[in-house]
Amino acid sequence: MIATLNKRLAQTSDLPGLTELLADAQRQMQQAGITQWNPRYPNPDTLRADIDQQLLWLYGRDQRAAITLTLADNTLQLHRLMVHSECRGHGLATQILQDLIAVAASRDLSGLQITTNHTNRPMMHLLEKADFQLTREFLMPDRTAYGAFYEYNYALN
Fold first, then answer.
1. pTM of the model
2. Is residue 63 predicted with pLDDT exceeding 70?
3. Burial of 96: CB neighbours in 10 Å, binned 0-12, 13-18, 19+
4. How far apart are CA 19 and CA 117, in angstroms?
5. What are phi and psi for residue 42, nearest 5 degrees?
6. Residue ranges covered by each domain of the chain
7. Rounded to a whole number, what is the distance in angstroms from the first to the last CA of the chain?
8. What pLDDT score does 40 carry?
9. Nearest-CA neighbor of 81 among 12, 39, 15, 29?
10. Is the dihedral of CA 29, 33, 36, 42 positive or negative?
11. Tell me, which fold does domain 7-155 have in CATH?
12. DSSP H helical ranges for 38-91
């Protein structure tokens, strides 16, 4: 476990490191047979847009993890959680979820929500371990070739 969980909003100057983190995350998914992402999505332009909108957060030292956060209907929505392969298995993703649950609770939000692909078993395991509940299975209209997506929620009140 990491003793101190550093976090901050990503800045444009972080884009080269984030692009490398994204490439590493895409490699991890491809090697594990996870079809949620592909070489075209997400891409550096996706990251740049998230930075410009102040939605992308960096966690850990040396940009080893990142997540995009949005707010809708009093729910913190989590997108594109990436943890570098060098940090895999050290609890960083679990710590990020714990931190976000605490942040959402401190802001009196109703809960957290994340969507993942049916092939992303590591993410499903992480979410279930953190007490997120599977609430919906659906096909994304523009991504039906990727099969079912699952929506997980963590209720706070």
1. 0.93
2. yes
3. buried
4. 22
5. -70, 170
6. 7-155
7. 29
8. 86
9. 29
10. positive
11. Aminopeptidase (3.40.630)
12. 44-52
